[in-house]
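Structure ticket #2291
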Amino acid sequence: MMAQFLEIKAEYPNALLFYRMGDFYEMFFDDAVMAAQALDIALTKRGKHQGQDIPMCGVPVHAAENYLLTLIRKGFRVGVCEQLEDPAEAKKRGSKSVVKRGVVRLVTPGTLTEDSLLDARQHNFLCAFASIRDSAALAWVDVSTGDFHVQSCPTVGLSPLLARLAPREVLVGDSPDNWLRDTIEETGAAVTELARASFDSTAAGDRLTGLFGVKSLDAFGNFARVELAAMGAIVDYLHITQKGKLPLLKPPVAEATDTSMRIDAATRRNLELTRTISGDRTGALLSVIDKTITGSGARLLETRLNNPSRHLGTVRGRLDAVSFFVDNQQVKNDLRETLRKTPDMDRALTRLSLERAGPRDIAAIRDGLTSAQAIFDLIGAHDLPDLVADARQALAGHGNLIGFLNERLVEEPPLLARDGGFTASGYRADLDEARTLRDEGRKVILGLQKDYAELAGVTALKIKHNNVLGYFIETPATHAPKMLAAPLSDTFIHRQTTANAVRFTTLELSELETKILNAGGRALEIEREVYSELSEQIVSQGAEIGQAAKSIAELDLQAALAELALSEDWTRPAVSDDRRFKITAGRHPVVDAALRKQASGSFVANDCDLSDAQDSKRLWLLTGPNMAGKSTFLRQNALIAVLAQMGSYVPADQAEIGLVSQLFSRVGASDDLARGRSTFMVEMVETAAILNQADQNALVILDEIGRGTATYDGLSIAWATLEHLHEGNKCRALFATHYHELTQLSSKLDHLMNATIAVREWEGDIIFLHEVRQGAADRSYGVQVAQLAGLPASVVERARVVLEALEKGDREDGNKAKTLFEDLPLFAVKPQAPPQPVKQSKVEEILGEVLPDDLSPKEALSLVYQLKETLGS
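Resolution: structure written out below.
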């Protein structure tokens, strides 16, 4: 056996081998050591190899999925090695013969299909990056749903695309460059190297045509050689990991590079689109806007949020669909109620195609199609926007399959096919008979006993059972002559005579005994046939079912966005293909929701007009104190653009948005110590990317450029950056800063406007009004903010003194400020004396001895008089 393990393990050196032994998956040698540590299970030993103990650990087969999930999350790959024959067959070859085993599946982060291993509301992408000379492409697939896409991708565009997809695993050629590995690992994805042959474009074409059963891929689009190479690598990898059982992949979709808003990784992180900067989903924009009901609708929402469209017709079509449900709230409510009963057909269909499903997956298809028909009926066919009409059309025409499944499947089937019990009664007569014999064998025997007693005229006749004879007929010895004589002897066959009774059998009883003994196995055998029949029927209609599932996701998303718009009082944006950007009373969706949930006050809405027009300025320079809301204002306008172009209503009273081609954000401070980058270096790298890449249709938000270095260095960099945005990039931008000197540029740059966050001082304290106004701030109020943060009063007061002296010196003579450090005495912390105990007053002494619960009303009144008298004395 150990020789067999080592032989199989040699084929999968980079994976843990789950070696099936009865009801357990066992691991040996280094696999066992690593798995025991990762899973926190006991490490034991089994036998010896080359004189050394063999480490061993194991997990139960019935609980294997939970252990697989833990291993995958910790970066392992797992080869599932099953028994390929019945142990009884192995024994026929000899008592020491080893059961045939082989790896039936290689489990990797990008190839998961089980519900327990996946997040129902999130895609699980497997990507492949291919490059041929100066061209490159990225292909990606969600194995659990079959979605298959490819996009030409220059190297500079790889990071933004990976940031958008957030894949779990990326396939690359062997020995990838360091920059490629680093770029992939920055996203948290696992890097898997494949042989160069997997990326051969000619072989890839053959793989793809064979997979989809076509002579040419022209029907799906025109694919470049590098795109074919990337897609072919994915198909080849699926062949390797799934051992030839390919999932039902949908025809590949070629995505153009200019059809969606480009958002790089830093901007996604800064804006917290799907996760917060700390990596949590709660608190990100997605968590606030997600009102979808189905898993497929939630996955589509995340896809749209990560990939806002730049196609005007697409955006307006999606907004029309949302408006339809906003205007038809009863239809929306009925639809959402039906969706609550709609399973995830996409993932059930994939598991069925991979022979990894159970009866509940078949039920999911049946119930999903039933919901699809109900949705088709409730939406109606009149005055529908194109997106809703197209989605509705795909929901009809599944009546035959629904009837086929209803006839054969029980209402609530069990989890596993091997347990049986999922086939409806009345469909197969032989199954019903086997079940009756299995479950009601004793009742059938009693019926036969009654028939035989009447036939023989012997009321004392009984049918009994023992381990030697099986079922037999027994009568008292006094009735034996009658039953041994004709004509009864033709029916009853003598088997045994005892002191007091005679035992018989019949041909009918012998056949019935065989049927009863085999009934359980026969019932399971018939149900396996039914299961195969149902699976084959569903998989044969996979394309139509997949289209219905896609339509359900689309309708769920549009109805959810309508629900969001109505509940949050959002408005439909006016989207155009010019360079407008005018927001009236805009709000930050996440902060606004948090304030309302906490009942801690209402969000102060603000206008923003970056339109490239005669009466507006496309570049705003924003000044004001920290904590006043500058970063919130910057982010909210960027998020409004994202929401509008994904096809959602937006948090504003009014919004006019010219399509944004690129969105760039440089907000917040962070370092990257692992790559040797300081906070300032990260800031400069991100700023450089913006200035080098932003085009005229981009939207840029920048916060505190240059703060990570010396004052004059930082001011110089911020100054030059602001000028470059104005004269070079010529894009719409919000630029927040504490360098008040930059406000002077508004007189020199035609498209620059100064704006500030209003504050009010009251008795030495600062009150934030969170209101954006035209003009420049007179100062930064840093000392007041420090006081609010809780700095010791002595530190705050010393800071005021130093600030006043520095400002006075700078006003009178710029050079004089340098000498102030010599003139000002050093700050000295005065040691505080320990607090002296305070002597108690007479009243406190009296009260200290009182137990309120022991006082009667009269005593309490007397105590009040005593205290009053004490205070007067």
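Closing remark: Residues 842-872 form one domain.
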